[in-house]
Every structure is written in C-alpha cells, then in structure tokens.
# Entry
Amino acid sequence: MKKNLKKTSVRLAALGLATAISLSGALVVSANENPTQKTVAQNQELYAGAYKKVSASEALADKDLKAAIDQVYAQFPETKSYEISAYKDVVSKDEYDKYVIRLEKDAMNFFHFAVDSKTGKLSYTIQSLDASTVLSIPTVKSGVDKIYASHPETKSYVISSANIVDNFANKFSKYNLTFTEKNSKRSITFGIDAKTGDIITPEKKEL
# Structure
C-alpha cells in the first residue's frame, strides 16, 4: 500500500475521527466551537465537530471516493464484503479530508481511510492486523521485546488486537498493539514505529 499510494496531505481532524471510530465507534459531539459549526449542528448530527454520516451510495457517487475505494478493494479484496460507513466533511471548506470511510467486518477486522479534499487521493489508512501473527513482522518483534524489557508485567499479557496506521503526508507508519491481562479487563496499548521498532507512549485502559 505504501509503495503504491501517492503521499498526500493528512488532516488531523479526520485522523482523530477515524481513530475514535476504530476504538469506540462514532462519537457525536456538540459543535459549539464557532458559529458555522453551531449552525450546521442544529440541523444534523456532526462527528468530530465537522463530519456528517452519509449513506454509502451518496458517498460513492463522488468520483474521487469511488476511485479510492476501488483502489482499496483491488489491493485488499477481503474488504469488498465489509460494511461501509461514510463520513463527509460538512463544515470545513476544502481544508480537510473530504470523506472518512470505515470498512468493517467486525470489531477485529476493519480498514479505515480518508480521501483528501484537494487531491482526491488517500491521505491515510488504518488497517486491522491478525494479533496472533503480527509478531512475524521484524520491527514489531523488536518493539515488543522493548516493551517486555520496559514493562515486564506485559510478558504474561496477550496481544488482543493490532492495527497499522499509515500517514502518507508525514511518511510515517506505526503499529498499535493492545496487551490485555489474562483473566482481567485491564489492558495497555503501545505504538511501535514501523521503521525503527521504537516504542511510542503507551495508553492504559481499564475495561
């Protein structure tokens, strides 16, 4: 994917939306940051302050979105059977990603991406990975070894979920691994730099 996709501008607002969706579902927020958002929010629900959920057919009527999703389908055929959720920027004017798309089979199998509002190209992707085989990736294995060294308690944990985030604008990729304690609801998520295997600040969670 990283070799075949043109590096384009990533937008923080859209990335925040896709991350929120991938972790906990769509979050409806009250848009009171400025008059424009407040006016739009009075007539429709907004997500991440700027994105409205739209039907898949409406989203796919956009030629840039259709081309982007066809590209994803071509490289990841299994996603053709995934359910589509689409979010369109209805507040910003050509300043953020035009669409954020969520392709999901279930909570453990998904592929999210955004379409840049100016270029029509993919700006970033978030793809679920098989937690049981992710350790076969050299940089992930290196990162996990570092995690075990700095957080010995995680040696007894299981890797309950994993995904990779590709930010094409900044030419940066990272793996997110969630370690869950056996017989417990406590978990901790680590980011691992895809190039170096370095650990990114972990996030703890009590389920």
Summary: Residues 1-14, 19-44 have pLDDT under 50 and may be disordered. The first strand starts at residue 51 and ends at 54.
